[in-house]
């Protein structure tokens, strides 16, 4: 597969500078459409969309941070000569026959989404499964554009500015305010034209086939498996050192999750992660037997009235956790295939550390040359695993097993094969795309 022949840097320079005279997009050209919340209106919307032509611009609004579920509370669709439609999915629900009809219609052409991995799960919950995808956010990354949010892309490529003041709103509330509906409609108003701009950039840089592989990989990806011990991802867990404290975190996280799912409220609104960790730390040394004890323990965090609504449940969970025999406390560490932290590779695993420094440095050079972020050229975790395991089956096969796309394998496998031959690390500090600002060695020692 050919690599870019045009200069990506030139393309970025020409197309990514924010337009100083960007025009504010304040309302859809044909006004905000009536919200589709009845079967008759849904049927009319389907008929209009079917009369249109070309790809479908699609977006969805969720109530992240407010609700436990990630369901869609509004779906926006636009098509040339097919109108712009705002569909309220709540009156219909998953599996409704009109969503089946919509799915058949959407499968007849390309579906344009911005940051598709965010919206696909809630669309699929309703029965919408695109067969042909174009992701403008991912396309922008592959094209080498430095700012790939919807607003910045519209500004840099189309000289239009887009307000995002309702992006974090509680879209579950009804009725939806008119200015929210206007905001939602604008998210798809120019999405088709933006797709064409990004498509042209990718084609000019000979990256279109790479993008198409990425889009198909998103559609083909299976649902993620259930997490093992999801409570271990509680923010601030690094403070928890003792097994009985882990038992408290597990108990509080589990009961909070059960309540949140039952009433469909974001877990953090019931009790924050910081409060769970603080309670585990305090209760280990000082019993929490009353509401007053609970308030005293979490007051330093800035007490929320909502946290205390289930105070009896939190106290019971803490009491039950502390009553467990030691044999039932969670282990501090679990068996997993996670790699050791990078900070110990240099001293404890120098034979793996040396190839890793060469691999990261040379892949970063290639990413710079192609004007693609390192993490889009190849998943950093894959690089670490190849350097850790030195696969005997061959680097290309190992990358494919990990999930790398063919275009990525063709570019990165030769770099990794050479890196695996290295025995001396590089020593010039550079940033690791997966490790933030951690120093990585990069010049011959």
In short:
By secondary structure, this protein is an alpha/beta fold. The chain has 20 helices and 10 strands.
Describe this entry's structure for a reader.
This protein is of the alpha/beta class and 445 residues long. It contains 20 helices and 10 strands. The strands form 3 sheets. The protein has a 6-stranded mixed sheet, sandwiched between helices. α4 links the parallel β6 and β7. α2 packs parallel to α3, α5 runs parallel beside α8 and α10 packs antiparallel against α14.
Fill in the keyword field for this structure:
6-stranded mixed beta sheet; single chain; 445 residues; alpha/beta; 9% strand; two-stranded parallel sheet
Would you tell me the structural class of the helices and strands? Answer: alpha/beta
The strand order across the widest sheet is 2-5-4-3-6-7
Query: Which percent bin holds the helix content?
Result: 40-55%
Assembly state (oligomeric):
single chain
Report the average pLDDT across residues.
90
Q: In one word, what is the shape?
A: flat
Uncertain runs: 1-19, 436-445
Task: Tally the beta strands.
Answer: 10
Please state the CA-atom Rg, rounded to the nearest Å. Answer: 25 Å
Distance between the termini: 36 Å
Largest sheet: 6 strands, mixed
Name the beta content range.
5-15%
Number of helices: 20
Order of helices and strands: HEEHEEEHEHEHHEHHHHHHHHHHHHHHEE
């Amino acid at each position: 597969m050919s690599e870019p022949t045009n200069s990506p840097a030139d393309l970025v320079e020409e197309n990514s500078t924010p337009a100083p005279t960007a025009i504010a997009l304040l309302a859809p050209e044909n006004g905000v459409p009536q919200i589709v919340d009845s079967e008759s209106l849904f049927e009319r919307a389907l008929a209009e969309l079917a009369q249109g032509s070309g790809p479908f611009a699609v977006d969805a609004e969720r109530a992240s941070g407010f609700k436990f579920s990630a369901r869609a509370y509004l779906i926006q669709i636009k098509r040339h000569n097919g109108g712009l439609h705002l569909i309220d999915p709540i009156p219909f629900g998953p599996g409704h026959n009109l969503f089946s009809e919509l799915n058949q219609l959407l499968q007849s052409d390309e579906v344009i989404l911005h940051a598709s991995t965010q919206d696909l799960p809630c669309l699929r919950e309703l029965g919408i499964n695109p067969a042909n995808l174009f992701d403008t956010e991912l396309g922008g990354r592959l094209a080498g554009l430095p700012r790939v949010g919807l607003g910045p892309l519209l500004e840099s490529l189309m000289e239009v500015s887009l307000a995002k003041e309702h992006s974090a709103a509680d879209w579950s509330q009804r009725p939806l305010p008119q200015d929210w509906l206007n905001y939602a409609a604008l998210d798809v108003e120019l999405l088709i034209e933006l797709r064409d701009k990004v498509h042209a950039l990718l084609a000019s840089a000979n990256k279109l086939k790479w993008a198409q592989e990425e889009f198909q990989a998103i559609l083909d990806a299976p649902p993620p498996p259930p997490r093992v011990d999801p409570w271990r991802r509680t923010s601030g867990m690094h403070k928890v050192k003792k097994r009985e404290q882990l038992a408290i975190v597990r108990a509080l996280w589990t009961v909070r999750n059960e309540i949140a799912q039952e009433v469909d409220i974001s877990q953090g609104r019931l009790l924050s992660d910081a409060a769970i960790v603080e309670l585990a730390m305090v209760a280990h040394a000082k019993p929490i037997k009353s509401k007053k004890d609970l308030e005293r323990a979490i007051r330093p965090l800035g007490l929320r009235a909502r946290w205390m609504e289930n105070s009896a449940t939190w106290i019971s969970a803490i009491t039950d956790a502390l009553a467990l025999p030691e044999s039932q406390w969670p282990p501090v560490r679990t068996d997993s295939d996670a790699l050791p932290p990078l900070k110990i590779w240099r001293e404890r695993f120098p034979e793996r550390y040396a190839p890793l420094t060469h691999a990261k440095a040379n892949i970063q050079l290639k990413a710079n040359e192609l004007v693609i972020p390192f993490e889009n050229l190849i998943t950093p975790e894959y690089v670490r695993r190849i350097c850790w395991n030195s696969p005997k089956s061959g680097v290309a096969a190992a990358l494919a097993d990990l999930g790398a796309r063919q275009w990525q394998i063709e570019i990165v496998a030769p770099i990794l094969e050479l890196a695996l031959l290295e025995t001396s690390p590089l020593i010039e500090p550079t940033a690791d795309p997966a490790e933030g600002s951690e120093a990585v060695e990069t010049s011959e020692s």
